[in-house]
Amino acid sequence: MEGFKSGFVALVGKTNVGKSSILNNLIGQKISAVVNKPQTTRTAIKAIVNRPNSQIVFIDTPGIHKAKSKLGTTMNDTAYSTIPDADVILFVVDATAENCKADNKLILEKIKEAKSNAILIINKIDLVKKEKVASIINDFKDEYNFQTVIPISALKKADIEIVLNEIEKTLKEGPAYYSKEEYTDQTLRDLASEIIREKALKFLQEEVPHGIFVEIEKLKRTKTMNEKPVFNIEATIYCLRNSHKGIIIGKDGKMLKKIGMYAREDLEKMLEEQVNLKIWVKVREDWINDEKFIKKFKTTD
User: What is the pTM of this model?
Assistant: First the structure.
């Protein structure tokens, strides 16, 4: 279609700057775990926004951080590898950071190396004074020739529409890469795993969350005795130590039940059908340095 635009847009930034919240609001669906803890996203998750005159394919990358394991190194490599290939970079920074420019120096250097079309997104402006936002804009304006700078609160729909409009202006004419019915390249197993992991991240203590990995063992759509459709989902939460296993399960199994209850609610909203969810917890010591597990987080062409 003449005048139709398309392209791939990578959300890049440090951990806990709000990339996943922005992505979920951009597409109006939950495809990426959203919790107020760092290192939530582990893979490059694609999401699709179809507009009347454009198709925007978003890539939510892992938050860039100081790696302390093979998993951390893989997450950083995944994030950095998207920068040269994306048509547009959404460079997300946190307005509440004490020294925003210094914190993001390495990411900015990668964007400069790739000579990327980049839009600077200053998120969480609702949590700081206007003077702080103006200072961040001033700090970055001479560092790179950004297409535009957009201060936002990821929670406001009006801000999200501004971001979409600016991206569309930056994209070149091109075809739709996905059908209009699609909103992500994630499988149902991927989405189910993300939802369960999100609830675990939300409710567990600080030392546990980033040592967990959720694997969907079974996902099957059947019917109840009353002939109503139902999804039977079985999942395993892997953790690093026996002490973590005890925390995840909780006294009398209360924590695991809580994780399962909230995960099932989200799954039923997503699938629009009844869900039977069973979750087990297993210890897999040092899996964050185990190549068998790490390969699950590596990007493939």
Answer: 0.62
